[in-house]
C-alpha cells in the first residue's frame, strides 16, 4: 500500500477542513454511502479487496494521507486508492470516469 | 401512468451532487467494467443488506437468557460469540455485513444500570445483528440530545428511570459497535428460546425500550379506546 496520495482523490476531497474530522450531528447519511458499502462488500466477496484489509487501510490512510476526508467518506477514498495501487484502474481512468459521471448526472 | 390530483415540483437534475457521490459511482462503474464484480452482485448485496432485521440480535439475547455460559462468552467477545448464532461479521455470504467489521460489544442491563446506544458522529449501527437502523436513530434530534439529556430522551420513548438506575449512553464509532442485552422480564418462566427471542425487539436492543411478555412487534399494538 502506498502512502502517497493520488491527485485525483485530493481533487475530489477538496481543501483540507478542520470541520471534516469533528462530529457533524446535523449531517444525514446520503444514499451513495449505502451503495459504497455494497461495493466494498462485493470487492471482498469476489476476492479483489478483503474487507479487513480495507478497514486497516482506512485507519492508516484515514489518519495520515487522507486526514481531511470526513469519516463517512473515507471508505470511498481509501477503496479507490487501494484499487489504483493494485492496478485495477488508473488515475486517468478514474478522472475521466468522474468527469463523465458529473456530465451525466447534471444533464438537464 | 395515472393522473395525480396534487401538484409536484418537477424532478430537477441534482444541483447538490457531491464529489464523494461522483467518486462512489466512478469506482463502482470501473470495478464492474474491469470484471471485479457485476451489477447484479451489487444489486443483490444491497437488497439483501437492506432486508436484514433484528432477529440475529434477538436470538443472541434469548440464548444468553437461557445459557449462562453463552452469556459469558457473548459479554466477553461479541464478535466471536455471534458466530454461534450464525452471524459472522466478516463473511459477506453469511448473515453478517462485514463492512461493519469492528469490535462488537454487548452491554448487559441490570436492575441498577440501563444501557442505550447512539452514534453522534454519523449513523453507526450493529447491522449484522440488528439490520438497518430505524429512521429516528439517524436523526440529529436523537443523536444530539441522547448524549446530553438521556433520561429526557428515553422518557419520550416511554422509559422512565429513578435515580437508583444509572443510565449509560454508548457512542458508536468506526471501530466499535454496541448492542444492549436487556433484562429478561417477569412472566417468561419456562419459555423456549424461540418464545423469548420474539419479545426481544429491535428497540430493546438499542435501549429505548425494555422487553415485555405481551409485545413482539410482529403485529400492530391493540388496546381499548381512550375515553376522552
Can you walk me through this structure?
- The complex is a heterodimer of chains A (108) and B (228).
- With 108 residues, chain A is an all-alpha fold.
- Chain A has helices at 7-13, 31-45, 51-62, 74-85, 91-105.
- In chain A, α3 packs across α4 (74-85).
- The longest helix of chain A is centred in the middle third of the chain and has 15 residues, at 31-45.
- The radius of gyration of chain A is 14 Å and the shape is globular.
- The mean pLDDT of chain A is 85.
- Chain B is 37% helix and 11% strand.
- Chain B has helices at residues 19-33, 39-51, 55-66, 68-76, 78-82, 127-130, 140-146, 150-156, 193-199, 202-206, and strands at 103-108, 113-118, 166-171, 176-181.
- The N and C termini of chain B lie far apart (44 Å).
- With 228 residues, chain B is of the alpha/beta class.
- Chain B contains ten helices and four strands, in the order αααααββαααββαα.
- Chains A and B meet through α1, α2, α3, α4 and α5 of A and α1, α2 and α7 of B.
Topology:
The complex is a heterodimer of chains A (108) and B (228).
Chain A: H1 7-13, H2 31-45, H3 51-62, H4 74-85, H5 91-105
Helix pairs in contact in A: 3-4
Chain B: H1 19-33, H2 39-51, H3 55-66, H4 68-76, H5 78-82, E1 103-108, E2 113-118, H6 127-130, H7 140-146, H8 150-156, E3 166-171, E4 176-181, H9 193-199, H10 202-206
Parallel strand pairs in B: 1-4, 2-3
Key terms:
heterodimer; A: 108 residues; mainly alpha; 5 helices; 0% strand; globular; B: 228 residues; alpha/beta; two-stranded parallel sheet
Average residue-wise pLDDT of chain B: 87
Largest sheet of chain B: 2 strands, parallel
What's the pLDDT, averaged over the residues of chain A?
A: 85
Count helical runs of chain A. Answer: 5
Radius of gyration of chain A: 14 Å
Q: How many angstroms does the end-to-end distance of chain B come to?
A: 44 Å
Task: Characterize the largest beta sheet of chain A: strand count, sense, and whether it forms a barrel.
Answer: none
Question: What spatial order of strands do you see in the largest sheet of chain B?
Answer: 1-4
Number of strands of chain A: 0
Given as residue ranges, the uncertain stretches of chain B (5+ residues, pLDDT < 50) are none
Amino acid at each position: 500500500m502506498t502512502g502517497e496520495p493520488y491527485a485525483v482523490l485530493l481533487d475530489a476531497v477538496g481543501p483540507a477542513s478542520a470541520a471534516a474530522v469533528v462530529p457533524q450531528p446535523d449531517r444525514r447519511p446520503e444514499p451513495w454511502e449505502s451503495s459504497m458499502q455494497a461495493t466494498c462488500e462485493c470487492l471482498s466477496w469476489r476476492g479483489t479487496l478483503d474487507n479487513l484489509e480495507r478497514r486497516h487501510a482506512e485507519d492508516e490512510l484515514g489518519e495520515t494521507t487522507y486526514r481531511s476526508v470526513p469519516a463517512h467518506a473515507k471508505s470511498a477514498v481509501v477503496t479507490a486508492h487501494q484499487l489504483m495501487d493494485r492496478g485495477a484502474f488508473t488515475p486517468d481512468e478514474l478522472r475521466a470516469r468522474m468527469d463523465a459521471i458529473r456530465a451525466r448526472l447534471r444533464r438537464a | 401512468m395515472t393522473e395525480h390530483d396534487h401538484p409536484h415540483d418537477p424532478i430537477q437534475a441534482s444541483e447538490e451532487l457531491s464529489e464523494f457521490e461522483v467518486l462512489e459511482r466512478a469506482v463502482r462503474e470501473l470495478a464492474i467494467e474491469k470484471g471485479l464484480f457485476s451489477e447484479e452482485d451489487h444489486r443483490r448485496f444491497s437488497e439483501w443488506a437492506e432486508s436484514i432485521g433484528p432477529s440475529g440480535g434477538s436470538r443472541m439475547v434469548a440464548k444468553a437468557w437461557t445459557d449462562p455460559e453463552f452469556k459469558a462468552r457473548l459479554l466477553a467477545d461479541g464478535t466471536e460469540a455471534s458466530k454461534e448464532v450464525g452471524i459472522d461479521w466478516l463473511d459477506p455470504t453469511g448473515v453478517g455485513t462485514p463492512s461493519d467489521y469492528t469490535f462488537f460489544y454487548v452491554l448487559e442491563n441490570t436492575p441498577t444500570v440501563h444501557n442505550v446506544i447512539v452514534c453522534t458522529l454519523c449513523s453507526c449501527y450493529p447491522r449484522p445483528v440488528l439490520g438497518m437502523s430505524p429512521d429516528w436513530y439517524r436523526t440529529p434530534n436523537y443523536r444530539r440530545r441522547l448524549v446530553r439529556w438521556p433520561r429526557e430522551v428515553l422518557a419520550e420513548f416511554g422509559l422512565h428511570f429513578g435515580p437508583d438506575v444509572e443510565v449509560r449512553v454508548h457512542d458508536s464509532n468506526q471501530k466499535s459497535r454496541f448492542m444492549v442485552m436487556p433484562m429478561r422480564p417477569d412472566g417468561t418462566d419456562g419459555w423456549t428460546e424461540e418464545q423469548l427471542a420474539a419479545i426481544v425487539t429491535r428497540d430493546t436492543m438499542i435501549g429505548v425500550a425494555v422487553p415485555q411478555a405481551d409485545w413482539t412487534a410482529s403485529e400492530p399494538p391493540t388496546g381499548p379506546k381512550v375515553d376522552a
